[in-house]
């Protein structure tokens, strides 16, 4: 049902969703830190007040893709080989993360680091108030997720009763609601784990009950509409952004909404299909990880120059476009110089299925060859 792009074995619609997620986050930060548009402008309101929710789309996608890898391995061997799984995740995320951390530490550090550097080195800064490399909190969440998910699935999986996994995932998802009920809106692993789990649950149904997914995806535009209602209605009504709803349920509505958007994208007939499969989205998706880690650095540099271009809206627009293009150009360079070489090295040292591998890995679905996060 999902269409793959030719040659690179990438999943076209997921490329489009990943590109959308990073474009939302990038647009949000450009508007917030550079004030490109007047605050009373509708487009400015959308990016400044709502577009940061692109991180929840990232989480849902990560859960779906990594969950799919785990389920393929569980179905093939009734277990997950943890050393190669973790080694592949490390070689995917760590090289660029530590490069970006170094860049931020040496060029943007103007005050005492909070928390200490050791927390940034161990992915625990998310549990403290951060004053450097703030966007790295999402990487912490994903690292914790990569560490724990395969262990949980191994313990829960029974070949004769795979449904146990679904109920364990349900409990894990509800735990986030319990945590937010006690501590309120939280940008840490405990507070956002439900968005990741929703992605894993979609992967579960796709693997173990594909007929149910196919029946649901017969109405892709309806799924898309309902998903967007879950995502954006809380933003439209200020009463829903205050009090109990915001503190307890707002983050959950983002995960559920984007989970439905993900389901809608599995049918090529969804109205946003041509956009999701566009070359533009494919390119942005290819560099999305690099773009996420470098864009704030570029924006902070751009802050020093923006005031010189506020003489007319045309100058401001050109400056914003130049900032976006600079982010993409730097991200593409990082992809070529850091990401791509490490991914190639990973395939030599820890291939998915090879007896000659440093850590032999069982065979998994090649459909997600280049989409694993």
Task: Sum this structure up briefly.
The protein is mainly alpha-helical and 373 residues long. It is globular.
Break the fold down into its secondary structure elements and pairings.
Blueprint: H1 12-34, H2 42-49, H3 54-77, H4 82-107, H5 117-121, H6 137-156, H7 163-183, H8 189-208, H9 210-216, H10 220-236, H11 243-265, H12 273-276, H13 279-286, H14 288-303, H15 313-349
What does this structure look like?
- The protein is mostly helical.
- The chain has one domain (12-368).
- The chain contains 15 helices and no strands.
- The chain has helices at 12-34, 42-49, 54-77, 82-107, 117-121, 137-156, 163-183, 189-208, 210-216, 220-236, 243-265, 273-276, 279-286, 288-303, 313-349.
- α3 (54-77) crosses α8 (189-208) and α14 (288-303) runs antiparallel to α15 (313-349).
Give short descriptive properties of this protein:
single chain, mainly alpha, globular, 373 residues, 15 helices, disordered C terminus
Mean pLDDT: 88
How many runs of DSSP E, i.e. beta strands?
0
Model regions low in confidence, pLDDT < 50 over at least 5 residues: 4-8, 354-373
The amount of helix comes to: 55-70%
- How does the helix and strand content classify structurally? mainly alpha
Overall 3D shape: globular
> Termini separation (Å)?
21 Å
Largest sheet entry = none
Oligomer: single chain
Portion in beta strands = under 5%
Please state the CA-atom Rg, rounded to the nearest Å.
20 Å
How large is the count of helical segments? 15
